[in-house]
Input
Amino acid sequence: MSALDRRMPRRLVWLGASLVGVSLSIVAALTALTALVLSAVGVVKPDMTGIMMLSGLIAIGLGLGIPLTFHGWAGWRAQPSRPFTTSRHWRVLLIWIIFVVGGVALSRVSPALRRWLLIPFHTGAMVTPSLAILWWVNSTLRGERCSHREVTAGLAGGGIVGTAAALLAEGVAILVLIVVVAVIISIIPGGTDSVMNLVNRLEDPTLLSDSAELAGLLLSPWVIVSVLGFVTIPVPLLEEAIKTLTMGVFGVWLRPTPARGFLWGVASGAGFALSENLLNGSIGGETGWGMVALARGAATVMHCATGGLVGWGWTQLWTTRRHPLRFLSAYGLAVLFHALWNAAAVGSALLELAAEANRGTGPSVWLMSMSARALWAVLALMAGTLLTAVLQAGRKLGSQRQAHGTEGENDAPTPACGLQV
Output
């Protein structure tokens, strides 16, 4: 087999990536143009939450699609990619702080003014945490440098493929959960009447306007158990398997070292968090935007840390000795961290909702409020711990400067993370 034949699978991978990037960029551009036209003629009048979500979709399409297009095309043409070098990552952290502080200030001005000014601050505050952590982790790897092409592939793999696949898989999981819960309730004596009563309440058009009624419905035991069970079991299992799946598949050809695979996993987690931030960052609306921005920044740390852990695990399957137990251990630990994070995040949200629904100064309301704050403190502690751990792991892997054959790999490593073709 000629050298060109051996390189062809990689070149086809990059050609496919370029086509995905082109498609995504075109869709994002057309979406933006359509939204502007419909708004100008008055056909649609979206609220601020809708505008933020739409801007997030456009930012994902253009922000990830355009770089993927150019890097994929360069890979198809067998052009080398520059090393991904970063310095002074604290500047990205400072930019994130500026975006958050500015966004909080703008969220309190007149609606006519913030309708347009808040959007760039919102987008910047949702994107910069991923870049800051990626820059920071890369600076710890010392001589183990990846290429811009690989980092772009990791961001796009997590942010485009990972997010789309996760949304589809979780949608199916929700349908399955609804069916299972409905069957269980119907078996319980009087359960059928409870289900019909729930359906009738959901069909009530005044439900959304009655906060007390809505809170009572959301805080029913069946809903709480179902929500907590969903976010702590299928969501972590699916997301941790999917967000680094691109590198898991294409790593068979690209073969990065453990240190570089770790960074690629961090990039995949950063891309996944970036898309998740832009899609979910509008949940708090304008009044609660600041707290949501801080929460999304903390969640980005979790996604990057677990992505790096699973990314390292994938490299253990690419060696000649094959270490499936290492991969499964890394994956299992990532799922555990993710499940604990989701449990604390959703638990605090449910407690705050319960406290709001039971307005007053009673001891139960005070206890619920304090418990919610305690869970927020747990999340902050977890974010700090995971950030420290991912930086220490980067330093350790970077200092080892492992050759690709350290684990018994017979094939010599390709230059620049195996991305030169």
Observations:
- The first helix runs from residue 3 to 40.
